[in-house]
Amino acid sequence: MSSSSLPRGSKILAGLAGILLCLGYLSIFRPNRFEREWSIDVLGGHKAYEGILSSSAPSIAPEARPHVAPNSFSLTGLESHTTIGSSPTLHTRANATFVILARNSDLAGTVRSIREIEDRFNRRYRYPYVFLNDEPFDDKFKEHISILTDAEVEFGVVPNEHWNQPDWVDEPTAEAWRDWMVGEGVIYGESVSYRNMCRFNSGFFFRHPLMQKYRWYWRVEPDVHFHCDIDYDPFIYMEENNKTYGKSTAPWLRDTSLTPGQGFTISLYEFPETVRTLWDDVREFTNKYPHFIPQDNSLNFISDDGGYTYNMCHFWSNFEIADMDFWRGPAYQAFFEYLDAKGGFYYERWGDAPVHSIAAALFLPKDKLHFFDEIGYEHPPYYHCPKNGNNWKKGRCTCDPDDAFGM
Question: pLDDT digits over 21-45, tens only?
Fold first, then answer.
């Protein structure tokens, strides 16, 4: 029977049925509202609706969930996000954070650092950020940083007692030694604020209230560069492989009589005047507390003569991924308090790099240390570029392994 022979009413019903059938087919291929919003979240970085996470999604351990502080910074449209991933795959995360010590004047360099670590790693994992300053961050700094990430961002002020030169330091003596260092041409020889920073990074950053809820940290500084994609979670790697302290470069500081490049890492020119008495105090401490030193330590990394002298070798502490339980533990706490009481942070210019490195070398077994070859990292003017295996190609690195230094 042809359609022309159908009654007029039947023709109308058949037409409506055809239209509904077409609409039904179209709805199969048209994404629904929640799918569109998920796509926007994946492709554009917008926050997805919580309702799209089905009950069958993988659960996240309580310790892996970011903590939202009551005073977390927010602006209209700039929330301190606690969403847990930028893709449909939910990652089990460590109890970890990035920590950045910066000033308001460091905004441009800090923006560059955060943009790179987001692009190379954190846009997929959304680990939180803790920014610390010896004075309050201004609204411009907070806004410019907060738009760079969907991760939680917190801003804190360092307590005066953790930052300023202690009252028990004899200022006339400290000033005399600063003047002497200036005369000797020692970099930062005159700076009290630089000494404050070194002491804070050595013994106090992990005590800050905003850091208390975390176990792991990744230290980031303004004006650094991350040259390679990081397609795995270094925090989880450290945790699952029972590591404590991780580094990307290990430059060692040598007397200027040595040839640059000697040894297994770069040789840098450092002024021995900055750590004139540090090793004497380290030896005093280890003689007093030998039980803190495991048999399988890394003494040979920091001393070439069995501990009689310090060879000035240290890990580059502006890049660290480490377990704060070590810094908070009895060995390091006793070590730092012992050194701090000597006053060398101010009478000399002890840096957090040698202090951390000596502690990690002496108080940890060798297998607790890890070298991240695959993380291409630059703190101008020096940088590390992956050299092992396929790491450079796999990471789509922008650095040149032939020009970089490293282990």
Answer: 443 433 333 333 222 222 223 223 3
pLDDT in tens, 371-404: 888 787 887 777 788 888 888 888 888 888 887 6
Percent of the chain whose predicted confidence (pLDDT) is above 90: 57
Contacts of 189 (CB under 8 A, 6+ apart): 178, 180, 181, 182, 349
**SS3 string of the chain?**
CCHHHCCHHHHHHHHHHHHHHHHHHHHHHCCCHHHHHHHHHHHHCCCCCHHHCCCCCCCCCHHHCCCCCCCCCCECCECCCCCCCCCCCCCCCCCEEEEEECCHHHHHHHHHHHHHHHHHHHCCCCCCEEEEECCCCCHHHHHHHHCCCCCCEEEEECCHHHHCCCCCCCHHHHHHHHHHHHHHCCCCCCCHHHHHHHHHHHHCHHHCHHHCCCCEEEECCCCCEECCCCCCCHHHHHHHCCCCEEECCCCEEECCCCCCCCCCCCEEECCHHHHCCHHHHHHHHHHHCHHHCCCCCCHHHHCCCCCCCCCCECCCCCCEEEEHHHHHCHHHHHHHHHHHHHCHHHHCCCCHHHHHHHHHHHHCCHHHEEECCCCCEEECCEEECCCCCCHHHHCCCCCCCCCCCCC
Among 154, 270, 320, 348, the active-site one is 320
Q: Which tops the pLDDT comparison, 291 or 87?
A: 291
- 101-149, pLDDT tens digit by residue? 999 999 999 999 999 999 999 999 999 999 999 999 999 999 999 999 9
Whether 154 is a known active-site residue: answer no
Distance, CA of 220 to CA of 61 (rounded, Å): 26
